[in-house]
C-alpha cells in the first residue's frame, strides 16, 4: 500500500510526539514517581532479567567459576577383579598418631617426614589442598623397635629421593636401627604399610650389594628386610638401582627375610605406567626378592626394565643381571601369586621380560590368575612369552589369558 505525501507528514508528527527520533523539539520531562514505583536516580537502573543487551548494565556478577578439585591418586588396574583379603587392604588413618605439616606446603619438609617415620605409628599429611612433592634430604628410616608404621599420602603426596637416595628403609638386621632379636631375619615387626602415595626418583645406586646386613643391593624406593610389609594404592615412578650385578634388584621394592617368608602384599598399585616413568635396575625393574612370597593384586606394571647383562651366575666378562623386566624372584621355597594385574611393555636384557622366577630346589610356585601379560620382550631366553620359570611344576599355573 502507498502512503500519500500528507500521510507521511502525519506519521512524522506522531513519532515526534512519542519521543521517537531526534526532531529538535524540547526534551520531555520524566514521568512523576508514584507510591510503589522505583525512584529515579542518576545511577543506571538494573535491566530486566534477560535484557542486559538492551543498554542497561547488569548489577549482578556472573557466578564464580569453581576451581576443580585436585586430582587424587588412583593407581593399579581399575578393571582388576581379584578379591582383596582384609589383611591386604588399606589401613584406617582417621585417627593418625602423627601428621606431617600444618596445612601449608611449606610445612611439609624432608625433616618432618624423616622424624615422623622414625617415631612410627600412623602417619598422614596436611600440606594444603593441592598435590605436593616432598624431596627428601635423607632416607626415612624405620626403627626396629617400632610395632607399626603406616605412611598414607592421602592421594596427594609424592615422596621423592631426588635421584640421589632411597626413600624408605626398614632393616631388622641393621644394628644402627636397634637390635630386637638375635635372629634378626625372623621378626614380626615392624609392620609397614605404604598407601595412597607416590614414590618417585629413589635411588640405591652405589650401595654395596654384598653387605646385606646393613644395606643390601636394590630397593631404589623401598628397601624392606624383616617384619611385615604391604603396599596399597601406591605409584612408583622413575626409581633406579645399580645397572649391573647378579641377584641385586628391585628399583621400586627390594624385600628380604619377611616374617615367615611373607607374603608381601601389593594391591592396586602402579609401577611405571607410562613411557619415561618406568623403574630400572640390573634385575627386577619393579620388584625383587630372595626367598620371599608375594601376592600381587589388581596392579599395573609397564615400562620397567632389567638392564644388567650376563644373567645369573654372571657370564665371564660381564657384571651379571638383566633378568625380570618387572619382577625378579629367587630362592627356594616361596610362592608368588599375580591376580587381576596387567603387565605390558616391560623389558629384560636377558630373561623374563615380565617375570623371572627361579626356585633353586624346585619347591616354589608361580600362579597367574586373570592377569594380562603382553608385549614383554626377553632378549635372550624365556619359558613362556615374557616369563622365565623354574619351579615345582614344569610351567607356572595360569588361569585366564595366556601370556603373549
Describe the structure.
The longest helix has 13 residues, at about 5-15. The protein is mostly beta strands. It has one domain. It is about 5% helix and about 30% strand.
Structure characteristics:
2 helices, 8-stranded parallel β-sheet, single chain, 404 residues, 16-stranded parallel β-sheet, mainly beta
List the helices and strands and how they pair.
Layout: H1 5-17, E1 98-100, H2 110-119, E2 121-125, E3 132-135, E4 140-141, E5 148-152, E6 157-160, E7 168-171, E8 191-200, E9 222-225, E10 228-237, E11 253-256, E12 264-267, E13 270-272, E14 280-281, E15 287-290, E16 294-297, E17 300-302, E18 305-306, E19 327-331, E20 335-339, E21 342-344, E22 347-348, E23 355-359, E24 365-369, E25 372-374, E26 387-390, E27 397-399
Parallel strand pairs: 1-2, 2-5, 3-6, 4-7, 5-8, 6-8, 7-9, 8-10, 9-11, 10-12, 10-13, 11-15, 12-16, 13-17, 14-18, 15-19, 16-20, 17-21, 18-22, 19-23, 20-24, 21-25, 23-26, 24-27
DSSP strand tally: 27
What Rg do the Cα atoms give? Answer: 33 Å
The description of the largest β-sheet is: 16 strands, parallel
Q: Name the beta content range.
A: 25-35%
Biased composition (Low complexity): 33-63
InterPro entries: Pectin_lyase_fold/virulence
Region (Disordered): 21-87
Keywords: Signal
Amino acid at each position: 500500500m502507498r502512503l500519500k505525501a500528507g500521510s507521511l507528514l502525519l506519521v512524522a508528527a506522531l513519532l515526534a510526539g512519542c519521543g521517537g527520533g531526534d526532531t529538535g523539539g524540547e526534551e520531555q520531562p520524566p514521568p512523576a514517581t508514584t507510591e510503589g514505583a522505583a525512584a529515579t536516580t542518576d545511577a543506571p537502573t538494573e535491566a530486566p532479567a534477560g535484557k542486559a543487551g538492551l543498554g542497561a548494565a547488569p548489577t549482578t556478577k556472573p557466578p564464580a567459576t569453581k576451581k576443580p578439585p585436585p586430582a587424587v591418586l588412583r593407581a593399579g588396574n581399575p578393571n582388576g577383579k581379584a578379591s582383596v583379603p582384609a589383611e591386604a587392604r588399606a589401613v584406617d588413618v582417621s585417627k593418625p598418631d602423627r601428621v606431617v605439616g600444618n596445612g601449608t606446603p611449606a610445612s611439609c619438609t624432608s625433616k618432618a617426614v624423616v622424624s615422623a617415620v622414625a617415631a612410627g605409628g600412623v602417619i598422614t599429611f596436611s600440606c594444603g589442598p593441592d598435590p605436593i612433592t616432598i624431596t627428601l634430604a635423607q632416607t626415612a628410616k624405620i626403627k626396629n623397635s617400632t610395632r607399626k608404621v603406616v605412611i598414607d599420602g592421602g592421594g596427594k603426596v609424592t615422596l621423592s629421593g631426588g635421584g640421589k637416595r632411597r626413600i624408605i628403609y626398614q632393616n631388622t638386621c641393621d644394628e644402627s636401627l636397634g637390635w630386637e632379636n638375635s635372629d634378626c631375619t625372623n621378626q614380626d615387626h615392624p609392620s609397614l604399610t605404604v598407601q595412597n602415595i607416590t614414590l618417585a626418583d629413589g635411588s640405591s645406586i652405589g650401595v654395596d650389594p654384598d653387605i646385606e646386613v646393613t644395606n643390601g643391593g636394590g630397593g631404589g624406593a623401598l628397601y624392606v628386610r624383616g617384619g611385615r610389609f604391604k603396599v596399597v594404592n601406591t605409584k612408583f615412578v622413575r626409581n633406579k638401582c645399580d645397572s649391573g650385578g647378579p641377584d641385586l634388584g628391585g628399583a621400586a621394592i627390594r624385600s628380604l627375610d619377611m616374617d615367615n617368608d611373607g607374603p608381601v602384599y601389593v594391591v592396586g598399585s602402579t609401577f611405571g605406567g607410562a613411557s619415561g616413568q618406568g623403574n630400572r635396575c640390573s634385575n627386577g625393574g619393579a620388584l625383587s626378592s630372595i626367598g620371599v612370597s608375594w601376592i600381587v593384586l589388581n596392579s599395573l606394571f609397564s615400562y620397567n626394565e632389567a638392564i644388567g647383562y650376563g644373567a645369573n651366575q654372571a657370564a665371564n666378562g660381564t657384571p651379571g643381571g638383566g633378568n625380570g623386566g618387572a619382577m625378579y624372584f629367587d630362592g627356594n621355597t616361596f610362592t608368588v601369586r599375580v591376580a587381576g594385574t596387567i603387565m605390558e611393555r616391560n623389558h629384560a636384557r636377558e630373561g623374563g621380560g615380565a617375570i623371572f622366577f627361579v626356585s633353586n630346589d624346585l619347591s616354589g610356585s608361580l600362579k597367574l590368575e586373570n592377569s594380562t601379560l603382553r608385549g614383554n620382550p626377553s632378549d635372550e631366553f624365556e619359558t613362556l612369552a615374557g616369563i622365565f620359570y623354574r619351579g615345582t611344576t614344569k610351567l607356572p599355573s595360569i588361569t585366564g589369558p595366556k601370556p603373549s
